[in-house]
Design a protein that fits this description.
The protein is α+β, with helices and mostly antiparallel strands. The protein is built from twelve helices and 15 strands. Strands 4, 5, 6, 7, 8, 9 and 10 form a seven-stranded mixed beta sheet that branches. A four-stranded antiparallel beta sheet has the order 3-14-1-15, sandwiched between helices. A hairpin with a 2-residue loop joins strand 4 and strand 5. Helix 2 runs antiparallel to helix 9. It is elongated and about 100 Å long. About 4% of the residues have low confidence.
Length: 376
Amino acid sequence: MNNSVFLALRYLLHHRVTSVVLIASISMIIYLPAAMQVIVASGERHFRSRAESTPLIIGPRGSVLDLVLGSVYFDKPHEQVTRFQQCKRVEEQKLGTPIPLHLKFAARNCQVVGTTNNYLRFRNLELEKGRHWDMLGECVIGAGVVDRLDVDVGDWIPVSIQTAFLLDSPPLRLQIVGICARTETPDDDAIFVDLDTTWVIEGLGHGHAQGAQHGASETAPYTTITRQNVKSFHFHGNRNEFPITAMIVIPDSTKAQTLLLGQYFSPDETVQIVRPRDVMESLLKRVVMIRSYLIAIIAVISFVTILTMSLVFVLSIRLRRAEIVTMSKIGCSRSGMLFILGGQIIIILIAGGSVAATLTIATYAYGPELARTFIF
């Protein structure tokens, strides 16, 4: 038995290229469906946990999927807006706690999230370093922003230039005052600022030298907000009419949630209310359907590959007919020859399975990260 295994192994080592190709084919046949299952399952858990932790979203009418992806997962900056008075509307009804979001801007390809401290408490974002913002122009960043931009507390991040500034003026700079602990959620890649700061970026508020008259050179808007000039900042217009892109609503009770859900179906409404969980469930059903099709395609390809490999083994035995005759003449029994030939197949299957298992374990370990990278 040991001699048969030794001869089988020596044969495979002698034909390295053929052996490696066969092992790779076996490992991919086993690994691909398992890897797809792991990555998609990780993506589903990520989507579901984030959506289920967000009770309600109110935002401008349009695609509910875009609203949820933008407001819950910070998919991309939003252009559509509603008005801050929608937050006041929820507050006055005393049905829940609104958390406004302003998501129109980015800083060095990182999403700027204009909100309130209630958002940080709602998402359980704990500070690993520094403090919360307490004035205009200060920001708290996620752990992923630190990795991407190589910044720290005390550094400044320029916001992408918007129409609020002249083309030849520098963008508003945000000072980092705190860094959130890593959560493995989209919050890691976000820059959080006070809602008023995003309105300054939008041009609805500005500051200038104290005592300067409008139209004078001293009235040029500041692009760096400091303790010395922050008191000169002021806003023009009705605050209730200022823009927000959406708001998260935390209902006070199940009854309050039902009442809220029934209030935004009128054709005259400029906003809509959605439950992120329902929206993501609808999306995930499509993902599961696509996954089923892909697994079916992989199964067909795997079947064809197995047939091809079987043909390779049969042809290999035919080509080794002279070798088999020689082994028979030197006294090798029929069972011994079967052990040698069968041992080669078993070794290839074990090697391919081991490679597939190793890759699957690695994929499982890094599944959430892979899901965020390739799916999100």
